[in-house]
Structure to design on (354 residues):
DNA sequence: GTCTATACGTTGATAGAC
DNA sequence: GTCTATCAACGTATAGAC
């Protein structure tokens, strides 16, 4: 017998991710999540120690993937930008949630970690000086904004990806191959 | 006799802008604002009808300036990008607050307005097709990210501005003059 | 203009029955 | 695993004295 969605924990994560993405973390109450699942708030506490714990369980796969990427960055700038785009695309649900309520990064206490990670990619992409970093910020930041502003566009992973990577590459100031 | 900071209302706005920028809107309580001012929570309600009203009073000048710019856009892409940067720079305090907690845009009920305004600038800068808009998003988004990530850098308005505008211009794909 | 006091809702979280 | 019941803490907002 195939089990479809029997796992309450996984369902709660799905619903939470969706609500966080639209309302933001703080604006989403556990009552609301429980309500959608048709269970009580207290039942949620059987599956998650706290609200922050639920959030952490969503962000964790994202963090793991980022670690993997930044530990093994491609040599070519274009490949790096594509890998970055694809990674953010895969985790676009939780990415939207974070963008919607950046303050959660404080709660997660991973702000320093994020800065370190971004800096590593920035330097690898553009170089160590401030001017280099500015170019990297425009490129990566712009690329990421694409994922947010075209979040609902069905062509996000194809047409838009290609055009966005091209634009980011130009922003970087890398001579065309 | 010179009046320095006698106006409680203005002081409240100053403190609120600062707290919103660091904690985000929802995370900032009126008690905290009142506490910093050395007055009571209730006293705040003399100056502002509600918490949302206080927020609106901060965002209003930003909105006004954006209206002015988008009603009279420069002809040259570079000038447009510079004007956009300078506008965001002038209002960087409240901009940071919004970024910190994008959900406030729902509260302000200006989401549709923002989308319309961004679209207008995007089209003027790059053109009407989706591909055009992607380039514009990378350019403007990247530019704006610069203001956030280098918010504390003293060279933001000078060196960084120049480098960022150049990068955004390249992202746009405009042939160098 | 600012205060104290208070009303009233909602939140995250816990205890204990089933 | 899920429930009901309950908690303390904090939120916005109001009433009325000074």
């Amino acid at each position: 017998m195939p089990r479809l969605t029997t796992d309450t924990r996984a369902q709660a994560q799905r619903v939470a991710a969706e609500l966080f993405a639209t309302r933001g973390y703080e604006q989403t109450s556990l009552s609301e999540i429980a309500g959608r699942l048709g269970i009580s708030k207290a039942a949620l506490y059987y599956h998650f120690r706290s609200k922050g714990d639920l959030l952490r369980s969503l962000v964790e796969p994202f963090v793991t993937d980022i670690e993997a990427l930044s530990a093994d960055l491609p040599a070519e700038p274009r490949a790096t930008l594509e890998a970055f785009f694809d990674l953010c695309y895969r985790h676009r649900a939780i990415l939207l949630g974070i963008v919607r309520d950046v303050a959660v990064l404080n709660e997660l206490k991973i702000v320093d970690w994020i800065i370190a990670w971004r800096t590593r990619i920035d330097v690898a992409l553009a170089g160590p000086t401030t001017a280099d970093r500015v170019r990297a910020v425009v490129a990566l930041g712009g690329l990421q904004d694409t994922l947010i502003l075209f979040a609902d566009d069905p062509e996000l992973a194809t047409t838009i990806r290609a055009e966005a990577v091209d634009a980011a590459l130009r922003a970087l100031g890398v001579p065309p191959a």
